[in-house]
Amino acid sequence: MKKVLLFIILGTLFIIGTKAIADEQQEAVKFFKQYVNAANNYSDEVARMYSPDAKIIRQVVKPDGELVDVETDADTYISQMKLSRKGAKLKNYKNNYSDITALKVDNGYKITALRQPSGENYKLKTYMIVQKQPSGKWLIVEEMMQTKVQTFLKYAKN
């Protein structure tokens, strides 16, 4: 009888724990979708969605298919983003995302997707690691987006 009771208790705890993880995973995906909406509407909110210590990676896809990672810090990235936002808005530039998945990782949830820039027929890989803060707010702590924009290469550290 004790074993049956223990089994029921452990099973209940497992189900509760699994549901909590699933709920948090859904929150992470919801945060990603809020990010996409804010970015596609050129909102100032995007800058507040990044951790001050976020690791930003632009993976440049060279014409020959070679991949080159270009890393920067959150402050530099946010400054560049604010500068380019006006031009993007004039062109009505947006990104569409597909194949969105979320996976629990050590430091949060890794959201992966394929990104299709407006006006293009190709899709590029992207991921971001989002982390729930003690306050309940979600922040991006790492982001990688592939790009075919070759000018990013001038920032690459060889």
Describe what you observe in this structure.
- This protein is α+β, with helices and mostly antiparallel strands and 158 residues long.
- The protein has one domain: Nuclear Transport Factor 2, Chain: A.
- Helices cover 35% and strands 37% of the residues.
- It is built from 2 helices and 6 strands; from the N terminus they run αββαββββ.
- It has a 6-stranded mixed β-sheet.
- It is globular and about 70 Å long.
Whole-number radius of gyration?
A: 19 Å
So what's the overall shape?
globular
Number of domains: 1
Number of strands: 6
- Low-confidence runs (pLDDT<50, min 5 residues)? none
Largest sheet: 6 strands, mixed
| Proportion of residues in β-strands | 35-45%
By CATH, the architecture is named Roll
- Widest sheet: strand order? 2-1-6-5-4-3
Describe how the helices and strands are arranged.
Blueprint (H helix, E strand, L loop, with lengths): L1 H39 L9 E12 L5 E7 H17 L4 E11 L2 E10 L6 E9 L5 E10 L11
Parallel strand pairs: 1-6
Antiparallel strand pairs: 1-2, 3-4, 4-5, 5-6
